[in-house]
Amino acid sequence: MKLFTRYNIILMAISLFGLLLIGSLFYRLLGYYLDKQIDHDLVEEIMEVKEYASKGNFYQPHEFEDLVVQYKKIKKANPSSSYADTIFYNPVKHHTETARYLKTELELLGQPYQILVIASKSERQEQIQNICLIILVPVMLLFALVLLVNRILLKKIWTPFEQLLKNITAFNINHEVPYQPVEMPVAEFRQLNKVLVELSGKVKSDYNEIKLFTENASHEMMTPLAVINSKLDNMLQSNVLEKEHGETLVELYKATSRLTKLNQSLLLLVKIDNNLLQDKEKINLKSLIEEKYVYFQELINGRNIHVESVLADVSIYANQQLLEILINNLFSNVIRHNYDGGQVEIRLDPEKIVFANTGHNPALDPEKIFDRFYKDHASEGTGLGLAILKQICNRQHFLLNYTYHHDLHTFIITFKH
Amino acid sequence: MKILIIEDEPGLQQSIVQYLMSEGNQCSMASTYAQALERLGLYDYDCILLDLGLPDGEGLQLLNYLKRLNRTEGVIIISARNSIDQKIEGLRLGADDYLTKPFHLSELNARILAVVRRKSAHGERHIEFKEIRIDLDAKEVLVKGKLVYLTKKEFDLLLYFVANKGKVISKSAAVEHIWGDDSDMADSFDFIYTHIKNIRKKLTDAGSGDYFQSVYGVGYKFMEI
C-alpha cells in the first residue's frame, strides 16, 4: 500500500469517527436546549391557565398554536409538575406527532384539576435538522477539499522522491553511469539523496577494488602455475618414471589445467565486467556456429551425441570475441552435461539462439544456474561457464533464459533490437 | 640454435633452459632488463624469449631497442597477461609471437621453431622425418611421395609432435594445442587418443613406420624406434 493511501485511509477513518461523535453530541445538546425552551413555554401556558382561572375561565389555546390543554378533575391536588416526551394526535394537522408535555395539578375555581399541556415538537425538530444540515454540508465540503489538496500537494512533494527511486533502480554496479542525483526542495529528501550519492560511490569503488583484486590475484597465480607446468613437462621427459608416477602426473596435469582454466575464467569475467571488449562488428552467426561445430566435432562424435540443427542465415552486430566465447560455452555446456548417445538441438532464427540438450540432471533451478561456482559435484568444469554466458548476454543486451521441458535443458538467447 | 631467455622467475627460467638444451640448443639467461641489454649488446641470437614484467624495466622497451638496431632475432613474448591490447602492442613493436603463461614447454618449443623458420631468409618450407614429409605452405603430408589426407586438427597435431620429436607430450599439452584457451573442456583429454589413433592409421596405411609411443598413460612421444 502506498504511504499516501495508507495515510488517507487512517485520516478518513479518524475524521469519520470524530465527525459522527461530534455530530451526535451536537444533535443531543441542541435537542436538550430546545426541550428546555419548550418546557419554558409550557410553564407560561400554565401561568395563562392560572390567569384565566382567576377570571373564572378555562383557558384554551388557539388552534394554530399546536398546543393542547387538557383538564381532568381529581380528588386532591398535589402541588407537583413533571415534564416528558410523548406522542400526541394533532387535531389540527390530523396526524400524530412527537411532543412534549407538562403535567401538573392545580386548584382551579375551587376544584382540584390535573392539567396536561402538550406542545408539538415537530417544528422544532425540523429546525434541528436544518441547523445540522447547514453545519454538516460545509464541513463535508471542507473535508473533501482538504483531501484533494492533500492529494495534489503530496503528489507534487513526492515527485522527486519517485524520480530518486527510479534512479536507484537504474543504478547498476556494472555500468559506467554513476547514480544520478535528483534536485530536491525537501530537506529530508535532500539528505537521502546525499546519502545515496555517497553510498553508490562507495559501492562502486569497493566493487572496482574487488575486481582489481581478483584480476591481480589471478595474474599473480599464473606465474607459479607456469612453473608447475614447466616442471611437470620436464619431469615427463625422465626415463626412470614408474607407471604409478605416470598416474600421479596425469592427475597433476589435470589439476593444473583446471586451476589454469579457473583463473582464465575469472580474468575473463573481470574483463567482461570492465567492458574491455566493446568493438562491434557484423557477425554471421550461422557460419560461427558451423565453425564451432567443426571445432567440437570429435567431442560430439566421441560421445555419440546426436545433433539436430536448424540454422537461419542470421547476422548481428556484436563483439566478435565475446560471441565466440558465447558459442564456445554453449557448445561445451551441451556436450559436458549430456550423456553418451544423448541429444542436442541447436536452432538459430533472427530473434534467438536456442541450445538444448538431454542430461542426467532433472530440471535445474533457473534462479541459480547462472551464479558463479554453481555446478553439480560430478562436473569437472570451473562452474563459471554459465556465469560467463550470463555476463556476455548482459553486456550485449541479450536475454538469457533457461527452461526444461520434454527432457531437454534449454538455453534461449533472445536478441533485443 | 642460440636462444636468449629473459625471465625473472628462476623456476620457470630453469625449466625452459633444461627443455631447450635437451633439444640441442644453446641457451643464455637474463633475469633483469639490465642483464638482457648486456647480453644483447654482446651476442646475436636466433630467438629471444621475453617476459614483459621484469623487475627493473618494461619488456616492451626492449622490443623498441631491438627494432631501433634492426636486429633480426625472432622474439616470442611470454606474459602472464592474456590481454589483446598488449598482444597487439607487442606484435606492432616487432614481436613474432605471444604466449600466455602458463604454457607447456612443448608448445614453446614448437613456437620457437615456427618463428625461427619464418625468420630465416632461405628457410625450409617443409619438414622431414624419415619417410614423412610435411609441406608447411600447402599444409600437406606426404609419405614416400604419396599424399596422406589429414584433417586440420590432425595436421596440427602431427606437426606439433614432429617439432617436439623424441619428447613426451602430455595429453594436457596436446589438448591445449588443438582446442586452445577458449574451450573450457578439461575432460577432453581422452579425445587426443582418438586423434593419435587416426593419424597413426593414416600414416601406416600410407607405408610409414609407426612412430607414436604411448608413455605411462600421460602422453605420447613421436620418435624413431
Automatic annotation (TrEMBL), chain A:
CC per GO annotation: plasma membrane
Transmembrane helix as UniProt keyword: yes
Annotated Histidine kinase domain residues: 216-392
SUPFAM superfamilies in the cross-refs: ATPase domain of HSP90 chaperone/DNA topoisomerase II/histidine kinase, Homodimeric domain of signal transducing histidine kinase
Membrane spanning stretches: 6-27, 131-154
CDD domains in UniProt: HisKA (cd00082)
Pfam families: HATPase_c (PF02518), HisKA (PF00512)
Domain of life: Bacteria
Gene Ontology terms, MF aspect: phosphorelay sensor kinase activity
Catalysed reactions listed for this entry: ATP + protein L-histidine = ADP + protein N-phospho-L-histidine
EC number in record: 2.7.13.3
Keywords: Kinase, Membrane, Phosphoprotein, Transferase, Transmembrane, Transmembrane helix
Record Gene3D superfamilies: 1.10.287.130, Histidine kinase-like ATPase, C-terminal domain
Protein name: histidine kinase
Organism: Pedobacter suwonensis
Lineage: Bacteria, Pseudomonadati, Bacteroidota, Sphingobacteriia, Sphingobacteriales
From TrEMBL, chain B:
Keyword DNA-binding appears in the UniProt entry: yes
GO biological process, one term: regulation of DNA-templated transcription
GO cellular component, one term: cytosol
DNA-binding region: 124-224
Residues bearing PTM 4-aspartylphosphate: D51
Pfam families: Response_reg, Trans_reg_C
One GO MF term attached to the UniProt entry: transcription cis-regulatory region binding
Domain of life: Bacteria
SMART domains cross-referenced by the UniProt entry: REC, Trans_reg_C
Keywords in alphabetical order: DNA-binding, Phosphoprotein, Transcription, Transcription regulation, Two-component regulatory system
OmpR/PhoB-type domain span: 124-224
Domain Response regulatory: 2-116
Xref: InterPro entries: CheY-like_superfamily, OmpR/PhoB-type_DNA-bd, Sig_transdc_resp-reg_receiver, WalR-like, WH-like_DNA-bd_sf
Record protein name field: DNA-binding response regulator, OmpR family, contains REC and winged-helix (WHTH) domain
Natural source organism: Pedobacter suwonensis
